[in-house]
Amino acid sequence: MLQELDGKMLVDGALVAAESPDVEVCDPATGTVIGRVGAARPQEIERAIAAARAAFRPWADLSGKARSGHLHALGDAIAADADAMARLMTLEQGKPVNEARGEIMKLAEACHFYAEEATRIHGETIPNDSPDFTSIVEREPVGVVGAITPWNYPAELVGWKLCGALAAGCTIVIKPAEITPFTALAIGAKCVEVGIPAGVVNVITGPGSVVGQALVEHKGIDKIAFTGSSAVGLRIQQSATSVKQMSLELGGNCPLIVTASANIDAAVKGAARRSFRNCGQICIAINRIYVVRAVYDTFVEKLASAADALSVANGIENPDADLGAMASAEPLDKTRQHLDDATAKGARLLAGGKAPEGSVFAKGHFFRPTVLADCTHEMQIMTEETFGPIVGIAPFDTLDEAVTLANDTPYGLASYVFAKDADEIRYLSQRLDYGNVAVNNVDAGIMNAPYGGRKQSGVGYEHGREGMLQYMNFKHVRMRFDLPGA
Ligand code: NDP
Predict the structure, then answer these.
(1) Which atom of ligand 1 sits closest to the CA of residue 457?
(2) Distance 35 CA to ligand 1 centre (A)
(3) Percent helix, strand and coil across the chain, each rounded to 5?
(4) Which of 165, 206, 193 is nearest to 67 (CA)?
(5) Which of the chain's termini has less CB crowding within 10 Å, N or C?
(6) 424 is catalytic
(7) Among 103, 117, 249, 462, which one carries the catalytic annotation?
(8) In DSSP terms, which residues pair with 351 in a beta bridge?
(9) How much is the pTM?
(10) Contact 323/312 with Cβ under 8 angstroms?
């Protein structure tokens, strides 16, 4: 699969050789160069946008049922090739193969979900003040979408945009992260394989500051769908040179609150999963945990044991490992920095805090899952997104205090609560200032429900019907009739 994609971009229905394929893509577990992609030149960007523009009207004019058929076929093709696509993802991103396979299957699920939604696009009729007028509100696709995606979920974060946009009748130019381009190219190749018309899906590669920025500034792009850091999201919002729609799914700094009524073992299990899965490189990772003082010592001890029990390995060699390599040196450096900052300010290191031992880890970006207790909001770990396998814990005395600490952040993506008392659950879920609140579970996003952040975590939604409506405009058609006998 990699051979077919090496040095390529997907433009106008074909994998074409990039003009200068000199950007190296490395396996983060070994440092080995696995392939190369091009930094798209202006003329390559123009070709991709022109292809998407030419394909737009015919695609938008297809019936919802016909677009649905294409998306179902895409979901089937992706699921059928999940093993190869997962291996490709692990090679460029580092997560263990079984976890990567799970992500590919969720991408297939997104295809089928939006295939169904494509058949249910409908508008409204609205009464006017007099009976000879009526208003119809129709939904129309926005146009050509520029999708810019990060490296932590190279399949799903492309897929939500691709499927929502295609279901709505939009065409798309995708710019994946420079360090994980091949998964996006593989998805693009699947679109060609299942007969999605040429130009509907294009994938161009290269650095965000050049190629992503070109999409943002291009007048031929009607909407930017971006997932990435808050800093880049803000830059994108400020730098568009023509008015265009934007959905921005940005960073997080997500809290977990564990109350006196919580099932502690369930809370520990949830925290271990959501803090360390994908090495914590998840926008909805649990970054900080507030535990009621009465059960604080028990919780920190159990979470440290749970972290110590997790396995770290090369994700190709050990498909079942809990943690693979981190995707690059950058999040690993930030993890070490947050660790040093916290311990210098008095945090207690209870688990991890270092790379796993052994020559097999020498050339990759590996780190043990790390637990820090007695943290305060003077520490970066409690106030900034780390994007690494590390979590800080602090005690609280009252629910009010827990809410104040949890909301003490510029971010508003996801928050978590473990509690059994219904009054506590209601109080916390109402007061947590987040787009997503997960109670007694740690899966804050599901395909059927809208998923989005507030504050510096972004604007707009993915998932659910709302995820498709982000790619549609309203059109108000107001009609006057000459009514017989009036
Ligand atoms: P970045 O913001 O650095 O990059 C995201 C994408 O934007 C990449 O494709 C990047 O390209 C591109 N890019 C960079 N600069 C520009 C620019 N000036 N104009 C246009 N595009 C640009 O984020 P990361 O890739 O480091 O991803 C991690 C971040 O993503 C975290 O903050 C995380 O919280 C957030 N995230 C949010 C999610 C959500 O749903 N809210 C989900 C997952 C992650 P390149 O890398 O090739 O230079």
Answers:
(1) 41
(2) 21
(3) 40, 20, 35
(4) 165
(5) C
(6) no
(7) 249
(8) 371
(9) 0.97
(10) yes
Q: Whose CA is nearest to atom 22 of ligand 1?
A: 208
Ligand 1 centroid to Cα of residue 368, in Å, is: 24
- The 8 Å CB, 24+ separation contacts for 243-249 are 245/142, 245/470, 246/459, 246/460, 247/223, 247/452, 247/458, 247/459, 247/460, 247/461, 247/462, 247/470, 248/224, 248/458, 248/459, 248/460, 249/157, 249/283, 249/452, 249/453, 249/457, 249/458, 249/460, 249/462
CA atoms within 13 A on the CB side of 471: 34
- Evaluate whether 250 touches 229 at the Cβ level (below 8 Å): yes
Tokens standing for 22?
Answer: 């000199």
3-state secondary structure 227-243: ECCHHHHHHHHHHCCCC
What tens digit of pLDDT does each residue of 26-69 get?
Answer: 999 999 999 999 999 999 999 999 999 999 999 999 999 999 99
- Is there a catalytic annotation at residue 283? yes
Query: Could you say which of 111, 163, 170, 283 is catalytic?
Result: 283
The span from the CA of 363 to the CA of 381, in Å, is 26
Reported as a single tens digit per residue, the pLDDT across 309-353 is 999 999 999 999 999 999 999 999 999 999 999 999 999 999 999
244-253: per-residue pLDDT in tens? 999 999 999 9
Q: Whose CA is nearest to atom 9 of ligand 1?
A: 177
- Tell me the C-alpha distance between 160 and 157, whole Å: 6
Distance CA 92, CA 32 (A): 10
